[in-house]
Structure formats: structure tokens, C-alpha cells
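Make up an example, fold above all:
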Amino acid sequence: MKTKTLVALSLIVGIGAVLHTIIPGFVMGLKPDMMLSMMFLGILLFPEKKNVLLLGAVTGVLSGLTSTFPGGFVPNIIDKLISSFAFYYLYILIAKKSASVQSATVLTVIGTVISGAIFLTSAYLIFGLPGSFAALFGVGVLPAAVLNGIVMFIIYPIVTGILRRTQIA
């Protein structure tokens, strides 16, 4: 793994950690996971399995540490590891056809929905949920998917332009 890649990924994860920390939990401790959009951005920019594993593990631990959801540490780790590879394989399928801002946005929305379902399911199975699955999914995950899609639509062209000019990627 190149040092440039590690530095770029660490910056992306650091930005995601800050965003995840400053956004308050609003529904029974559940909050939009902005760290997901940064993890997905890292996968889009550096699509290799070792990077996906690293991003999933680090993002899971950092999300777990900054989670306001009751018992959210372990479900965050499980969720990020699984959803990072799910996103990666979806990207591999789509990248052959088109690698555009629109496809990155759609993949981010799908990835966020997958991630939210995995998080809530693992939290339910391990600790139980503070409310109904459907309510938490509808009020927490779906708005987060829309928000992450908007963030990706704005950030992806900016970051790819910067990386192209600096020749990091």
C-alpha cells in the first residue's frame, strides 16, 4: 500500500470522524452517519480490497467510539466491515458501465440503506433496539441515505478534481 494512498484515506476518514462526532443523535440516539459517505468516497477513489478492509475496520471503530446509539460500538464495526465490501462489489459491477457522479450518488444511497439495515439488525440481535426497527429505519436510515447522497453528489467531483491535479490517485 502506498504512503500517498494511506495519507489520502486517513484524511478522508478523519473528515468523516469529525462530521460523525459533531452531528447529534436525534432519534433515540440514532444519527445520520456522515462517516459512511467518507468511507464510500475512499472506496470510490482507491478501489482495492486491502483499502476496503482498512476503511471498513477503521471507520467501524471510529463510528463506534463516537456513536450516541445505545450499545452502538459493536454494531458499527459489524456494519462498516460488511457494508464496505457490499459497496465495493456494487461499485465493481457498476464501474464497468459508468463511473460518474450520478452513479457514485446512487451507490452511496444504496450503500447507506444497506449499512443502516445491517446496523439496526446487528444492534437488534445483540442488544435490542430502543424503538421499533421500522421506525428507526424510516426516521434514521432513509433521511441519512438522502443526506449522504447529497453530500456525495457535491463532494465527489471536487475531490476527484483535486486528486487528478495533485496526481495522488
About this structure: The chain has six helices and no strands.
